[in-house]
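Practice problem 4.
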């Protein structure tokens, strides 16, 4: 009985202490550190948007990189040689990436047009071939693109 009474008293004291109102702490002083808003209206760095945690949702960044564009073209060519719909889709994705890494690559746009043509996606194919003609009107690729555009009509 004494133990039960002692335990009940201890629990009562504990809950009484936990339920006491907390004293309000004074607001932090403005020391001009990074944790306070700047006077020019910028948000402090700790309030900035956090980095994306799920890397699969994060948008892909395409800096200008001709070597990466060439690598994507080579991989796309590998997929094109498979001569299967899945290969053409994979190739189109690689050629699309190549055009983003190097927007000045007429070869990437031409290959993209060929892949889209194989996938029977004529509007995208025409757009890619037209881009080739605009980028390099006197090139061999432009002549081939004109032939392919002529055959689409």
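Answer key:
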């Amino acid at each position: 009985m004494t133990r039960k009474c002692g335990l009940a008293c201890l629990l009562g004291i504990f809950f009484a202490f936990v339920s006491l109102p907390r004293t309000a702490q004074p607001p932090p002083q403005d020391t001009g550190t990074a944790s306070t808003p700047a006077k020019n209206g910028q948000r402090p760095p700790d309030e900035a948007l956090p980095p994306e945690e799920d890397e699969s949702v994060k948008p892909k960044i395409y800096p200008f990189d001709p070597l990466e564009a060439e690598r994507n073209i080579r991989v796309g060519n590998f997929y094109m040689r498979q001569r299967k719909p899945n290969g053409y889709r994979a190739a189109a994705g690689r050629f699309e990436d190549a055009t983003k890494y190097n927007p000045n690559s007429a070869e990437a746009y031409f290959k993209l047009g060929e892949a889209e043509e194989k996938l029977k996606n004529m509007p995208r194919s025409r757009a890619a071939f037209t881009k080739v003609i605009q980028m390099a009107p006197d090139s061999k690729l432009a002549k081939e693109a004109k032939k392919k555009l002529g055959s689409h009509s």
